[in-house]
């Protein structure tokens, strides 16, 4: 294998694929990136056996071939090369190492056979759907903060992507929950979505897909099967196993009768919560909300750090009531409000609160109160 490639193109492609490689691997080949040179392009593949990322870049290929090299080491070398440099990659049977050369810099990296590199099958998918990149970014950004990090409930360790019919219209919906909060976002279902199975996309895959979307064009091709999901971008593809489990029936926990409606300035509310939470106990991060006509009083009491109280004007004219919430969870939700106002709907003292965004009718957030 022998080729020459621009440093910027090489860095971009390596940056896309190398994040799939775990820093510590018990299987040596999984620390490597597969380099495949043919015709006028170089293709890169990296995997952790659960997820595979493939990208390609234009190159001047003098001799086609395949080899694997240490992903993170190669990425760091290319990152530190001068901008605008042309990088030469060559591997011959005479020297069992990959030669990397740019200007007066030369590196020789250990390699492993391309035939040992595991390849994830791209078969078994049912149809394709073309999704607008900005719409998919919105679905991910509005919901992924609520993905659970608790490994015992593995079926919550991902984003539940599925189609659903709302008021007669098919929708593509993303839902995430950790048991204490839930985030839901909808968009009109794209062509090809009908009949696609609902899947739980792992947290790592969601993060990598979101990162790749930054460099994608206007559309991404989405393919789904009961076992895998595949995102196809401009010349790049991410294929991942999905979580084998049943996502909870989240519709049952969405409040239907929360008739205490509070309108609040989302930015001012978030700033006030953040200020009083400065002295909250790290474990519970509890903030007490005392709501009455025209105002909410936020209170935090900490035996060691003292007390904080802040009053904020709100649009509410009902009976007074009090609840406590985790401050971090409140802030995570208010961060997602795209308009100036947030609509908070409350039921009883132990009922989940429903948070809506008047500027985006296709999102809903649910937050469980703390029992204090």
Automatic annotation (TrEMBL):
<keyword id="KW-0239">DNA-directed DNA polymerase</keyword>
<dbReference type="InterPro" id="IPR022635">
    <property type="entry name" value="DNA_polIII_beta_C"/>
</dbReference>
<dbReference type="InterPro" id="IPR022637">
    <property type="entry name" value="DNA_polIII_beta_cen"/>
</dbReference>
<protein>
    <recommendedName>
        <fullName>Beta sliding clamp</fullName>
    </recommendedName>
</protein>
<keyword id="KW-0235">DNA replication</keyword>
<feature type="domain" description="DNA polymerase III beta sliding clamp central">
    <location>
        <begin position="132"/>
        <end position="249"/>
    </location>
</feature>
<comment type="similarity">
    <text>Belongs to the beta sliding clamp family.</text>
</comment>
<dbReference type="Pfam" id="PF02768">
    <property type="entry name" value="DNA_pol3_beta_3"/>
</dbReference>
<dbReference type="GO" id="GO:0006271">
    <property type="term" value="P:DNA strand elongation involved in DNA replication"/>
</dbReference>
<keyword id="KW-0963">Cytoplasm</keyword>
<feature type="domain" description="DNA polymerase III beta sliding clamp C-terminal">
    <location>
        <begin position="252"/>
        <end position="371"/>
    </location>
</feature>
<dbReference type="GO" id="GO:0005737">
    <property type="term" value="C:cytoplasm"/>
</dbReference>
<dbReference type="InterPro" id="IPR046938">
    <property type="entry name" value="DNA_clamp_sf"/>
</dbReference>
<comment type="function">
    <text>Confers DNA tethering and processivity to DNA polymerases and other proteins. Acts as a clamp, forming a ring around DNA (a reaction catalyzed by the clamp-loading complex) which diffuses in an ATP-independent manner freely and bidirectionally along dsDNA. Initially characterized for its ability to contact the catalytic subunit of DNA polymerase III (Pol III), a complex, multichain enzyme responsible for most of the replicative synthesis in bacteria; Pol III exhibits 3'-5' exonuclease proofreading activity.</text>
</comment>
<dbReference type="GO" id="GO:0003677">
    <property type="term" value="F:DNA binding"/>
</dbReference>
<dbReference type="InterPro" id="IPR022634">
    <property type="entry name" value="DNA_polIII_beta_N"/>
</dbReference>
<dbReference type="GO" id="GO:0008408">
    <property type="term" value="F:3'-5' exonuclease activity"/>
</dbReference>
<feature type="domain" description="DNA polymerase III beta sliding clamp N-terminal">
    <location>
        <begin position="1"/>
        <end position="120"/>
    </location>
</feature>
<keyword id="KW-0548">Nucleotidyltransferase</keyword>
<keyword id="KW-0808">Transferase</keyword>
<dbReference type="InterPro" id="IPR001001">
    <property type="entry name" value="DNA_polIII_beta"/>
</dbReference>
<dbReference type="Pfam" id="PF00712">
    <property type="entry name" value="DNA_pol3_beta"/>
</dbReference>
<dbReference type="Pfam" id="PF02767">
    <property type="entry name" value="DNA_pol3_beta_2"/>
</dbReference>
<comment type="subunit">
    <text>Forms a ring-shaped head-to-tail homodimer around DNA.</text>
</comment>
<dbReference type="GO" id="GO:0009360">
    <property type="term" value="C:DNA polymerase III complex"/>
</dbReference>
<keyword id="KW-0238">DNA-binding</keyword>
<dbReference type="GO" id="GO:0003887">
    <property type="term" value="F:DNA-directed DNA polymerase activity"/>
</dbReference>
């Amino acid at each position: 294998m022998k080729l020459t490639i621009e440093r910027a193109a090489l860095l971009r492609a390596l940056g896309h694929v190398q994040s799939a490689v775990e820093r510590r691997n018990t299987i040596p080949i999984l620390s490597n990136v597969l380099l495949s040179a043919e015709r006028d392009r170089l293709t890169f593949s990296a995997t952790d056996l659960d997820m595979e990322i493939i990208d390609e870049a234009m190159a001047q290929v003098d001799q086609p071939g395949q080899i694997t090299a240490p992903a993170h080491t190669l990425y760091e070398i290319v990152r530190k090369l001068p901008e605008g440099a042309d990088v030469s990659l060559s591997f011959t049977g005479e020297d069992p190492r990959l030669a990397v050369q740019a200007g007066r810099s030369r590196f020789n990296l250990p390699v492993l056979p391309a035939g040992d590199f595991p390849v994830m099958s791209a078969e078994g998918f049912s149809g394709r759907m073309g999704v607008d990149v900005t719409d998919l970014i919105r679905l991910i950004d509005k919901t992924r903060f609520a993905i659970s990090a608790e490994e015992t409930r593995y079926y919550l360790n991902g984003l539940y992507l599925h189609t659903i019919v709302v008021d007669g219209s098919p929708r593509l919906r993303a839902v995430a929950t950790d048991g204490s909060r839930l985030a839901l976002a909808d968009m009109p279902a794209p062509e090809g979505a009908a009949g696609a199975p609902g899947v739980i996309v792992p947290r790592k895959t969601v993060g990598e897909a979101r990162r790749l979307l930054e460099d994608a064009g206007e559309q991404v091709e989405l393919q789904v099967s009961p076992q895998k999901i595949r995102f196809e971008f401009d010349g790049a593809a991410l294929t991942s196993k999905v979580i084998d489990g049943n996502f909870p029936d989240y519709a049952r926990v969405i409040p239907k009768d929360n008739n205490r409606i509070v309108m609040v300035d989302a930015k001012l509310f978030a700033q006030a919560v953040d200020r009083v939470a400065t002295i909250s106990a790290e474990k519970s991060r509890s903030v007490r909300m005392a709501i009455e006509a025209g105002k909410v009083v936020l209170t935090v009491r900490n035996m060691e750090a003292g007390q904080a109280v802040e009053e904020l004007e709100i649009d509410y004219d009902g009976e007074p009531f009090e609840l406590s919430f985790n401050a971090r969870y409140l802030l995570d939700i208010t961060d997602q409000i795209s308009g100036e106002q947030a609509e908070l709907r409350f039921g009883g003292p132990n009922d989940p609160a429903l948070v809506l965004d008047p500027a985006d009718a296709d999102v809903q957030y649910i937050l469980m109160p703390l029992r204090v």
